[in-house]
Fold GST N-terminal domain-containing protein.
Amino acid sequence: MDEPASAVPQFKEPFFKDDVLVLYMHPYNFYSQKILLLLYEKNIEFTPYVMDLLNGEQYSKWFLNLNPKADVPVLKDQSFAVTDSQHIINYIENKFSDGIYNSLKPFKVNSLEFNKLQMFCNILAPLPIGALSLGSFIHDVDLKLVPKPPFTGPLRKGCLGNNEKVLEFLKQSLLEVGVNRAPLMRKLEIQERRKRFVYSRSEYQKILDAIRSVLEFFERDMTAHSQTEWLISNDFTMADIALGLLLLRLYQLGFENYFWSYGKLPNIESYFLRFKKRSACQKLMPSNFEFLKDIWQMTPNKYKIGTGAGVLGMAMMMAFAHK
């Protein structure tokens, strides 16, 4: 009998050797990118597993056992799974902190620099990147955006359809027997509230105004500390990962003219140019074919239960931040 159209697709769980550090992720998911950049900056060996977000693999039973919230990224170190990007960052920094790994939190606890780093990360963490991305596809003409890969052409319309499809997978997951409903109910509430929020032009403007305020804050700080190359010092830190990735997402969505180009925020503009030149950042660029090829080749084949060999298909190009 054919599987019902509304049923959540089930993928068989991939298996890895016990000594492999595995990152369950998607290369265009904002929070996955944060962990990828951290791993690249610290030169940590890991195995990526690209989740098929478009076809609902995050709602497969095996993945819900790893993360009941059905979010990426998830880091699995042997039998230990770490969820939530901030928890993963802390885990990586604590475990890989000896001399052969660069520290992205190089300051003594409670020092002025450490407290400043924490403050900067706390300012950036609450920004709704998923809503920012989704709303840019809806209001792009009004905002005169100039999108860049991967958020160009039919991908933009595809992402809107993808959002509706994944929302249905989420609702269907709540009907599954044995599923932990509390985190999924919370996720559904967030998704539905976000959908209402981003379709309203006036409500979406509040997101843009909040981001502008944050960028203006960092512009002023950079003016006051023009002698340092990065946010805290001449060392690249977690604060730079957080701000740099925000600027990269804004640039790829086409917001650079809206926020910082043409002399609006000159320090932000020059900072972003430095950030883009870092080799770790270059690996995240969609134009970096070697990065995508390596990610693809290192991800084991996935199999949907009852249908034989499955493929990632357009999910590789159409998934984006679902948080």
Q: What stands out?
A: The two ends are 34 Å apart (CA to CA). The beta strands are 21-25, 47-50, 74-77, 80-83, 303-304, 308-309.
